[in-house]
Amino acid sequence: MPERSSRVLPIYVAAACFVLLAPIVIVCVISFGGDGYLKFPPDSFSLKWFAAFFGDSRWRQSLISSALIALIACVISTVIGFLAAYALVRAEMRAKKFILSLMLMPIIVPTVITAIAMYFLTAKFGLVGNMLWIGFCHAIIALPIVLLILLSALQGVDPNLERAALGLGASRLRVFFKVVIPIAWPGVVSAALFAYLASFDELIISLFLAGARAQTLPVRIWNSLHLDIEPTIAAAATFLIALTGAILIADGAVRWLRGRSVGSTQP
Amino acid sequence: MRREAFWRDPAILVYPAIAFLVIGFVIPLTWFFVATLSEIGGPSAILGQVVSIASSRAVVSALITTNWIALLVTALTLLAGYPIAYYLSTGNRLRFTLVLFCIVVPYFTSVIVRTYSWMVLLGRNGVINQALLSLGVIDAPLPLLYNKLGVVIGMTYVLLPYMILTLYAAMKAIDPSYMRAGLALGASRTYAFRRIYLPLSAHGAISGSLIVFILAIGFFITPALMGGPSDVMIAMLIERSVEIMLDWQGAAIMSLLLLALTLVLFAIYYRVTDVRRMMGA
């Protein structure tokens, strides 16, 4: 970049980083405010909005719904995505790029369209509000994320290790559980974590499929936002931010462990 | 014996995912379009209905708003993101980690939370107006929310990480020795940047712009919460026709238009990018 920018660039990037983080940090701070309305910086601090959030049975119910649905979506998408990623990395396939693009479609097609199409069927079969079904639908959205993470993770597994195990008489199934999974597990954990997060945060599909029975946390926030920007929402938002933070930290820890184990096996 | 054959070729392991996508994604979409459109009548009746809806005032105005906002957001994310991605690709490890942290945290935060955060900032009694009023910069709150400005700010914020990560993936692949060679041969830094770095990173800029534009035209949450009554994007119109007007046919036809536009753009994206690198994975 031009000479002058050697000083301008770091200042710009610092300002941009501030703008990227500030909204999230401000919401977290406001949620601990003790005033009756949204004020930044707050005059006093309290946990009253968190008490209101966790004390309200509807907010609590939405938390439980989100947690259960995300668990279902996470299990389905991680298992199916792992198998598919393995096949895409290892097998000789024509149209590999085409198959992959097809699998990425759920994040390309506008979610509103997917959600309405799913709702159309869901309403016909009377599945509105069925958590198992919502989890299944969320898994569709989570699958591309799982796939992208696992494709890059599995590319790091040396196929010679599998060939050696096969050559020594192990069955494919045994190689899978004794060689591939032990090496690729950090990628699998990352993929599962982000699949969980993707489902937990998903709003549009839940908006259509949840009905009154299975309102998820994002749906509750959405409904409350249409009434008023009440500070309880700030507490709910902070909860979601904390969840994101926890998952990023867990992912970082997994990567760190992997880096250490790779380091120790190399001479 | 058959089970052995089953495990010999790993290609078979892709089938559960394909079956899952067909059941959960392809069939619902196809069924939805076929069932709603076939109620209209034969092909000519459907075509007539498509033309009449596509040329209706509400849809035309929503399409113009959608494309305009998407274009603006794409340009803004490119302008704002390019220097950040450049900095990421050249910085040392500590700087890299710090900047990446600031990008990744919002990237993985729920869209509704990010939208809500900006509503808190931009509202009539929001953080920015409160601060400007107390500093005496303004006498009355600025209208920052519930208009196009709010939508553009919110969407630019939500989509910026996609742009940065795509640009970064392209810039990381640029060999720094090209720039050094240019400089050694006597080019000024500005000239070398313009003639060497910019063309080499154009590929990433195109990919990033395409993915941001594709995501922006289908956006729903942010414009629905931050827009005013006249800032109706096409995805909002689709949602409203189902939720409020129960007009499934209208929703299906508008969805078809939006889907067609999205798929055409994705086809271009598919040609210019390695999809495995999508979103900087």
What does this 3D model show about the protein?
The complex is a heterodimer of chains A (267) and B (281). By secondary structure, chain A is mostly helical. Chain A has one domain (58-265): MetI-like fold. Chain A contains 11 helices and no strands. Chain A has helices spanning 5-31, 48-55, 57-90, 96-108, 111-124, 131-154, 159-167, 172-201, 204-209, 217-227, 231-265. In chain A, helix 1 crosses helix 11 (231-265). The model of chain A is unreliable at 263-267 (pLDDT under 50). Chain B has 281 residues and is mostly helical. Chain B folds into 2 domains: 1-38, no CATH class; 50-111 and 145-280, MetI-like fold. Helices cover 77% and strands 0% of the residues of chain B. Chain B has helices at 2-8, 15-38, 43-54, 57-90, 93-107, 111-122, 127-135, 148-172, 176-184, 189-217, 221-226, 234-243, 248-272. In chain B, helix 4 (57-90) packs antiparallel against helix 5, helix 4 (57-90) crosses helix 8 (148-172) and helix 5 crosses helix 8. The two termini of chain B are 39 Å apart. In chain B, 42% of the residues are buried. The chains are: A mainly alpha (267), B mainly alpha (281). Chains A and B meet through helix 1, helix 3, helix 4, helix 5 and helix 6 of A and helix 1, helix 2, helix 4, helix 5 and helix 6 of B.
